[in-house]
Amino acid sequence: MIDTAIAELTGGGLDTTAACAALGRARATHYRRHPVAPPKPRRAPVPHRERHQPAALSESERERVLGVLHGDRFADASPAQVWATLLDEGTYLCSQRTMYRLLEREHGHVTDRRNQATHPPRVRPELSATRPNEVWSCRVAGRNLTSRPSQNRA
To answer: What pTM was computed for the model?
Structure first.
């Protein structure tokens, strides 16, 4: 009943706030029960790969960065070291993360750029006895050792 009265008053040229005040209804209640309009139609989303990033490097800038990374000067340096060295010299090509992205795009995955030493696996000692009392071992792992030796009984 109040809804129809508000509709008549607003149709007659009165705004919704004044109509609600005249009939004693809270404006928020009216708007809660009567949404203003259906939601606007949204544009179809553009797939992420097809979006254009305005701050992206151009092809010539990418080639310049890769040329610096693959040059003789920085052949064994990480992108973080290259970035810091160039920044100390007053040259900023791109961020560290962009350097890693460019290397990953070109090589598939980024690993260390220099050969790493490989160590043989550690061999755990094996205790073997051929006769009684030949091998002794001490198992300390499960004991609660205190600073007072008189309390360290098994």
So the answer is: 0.45
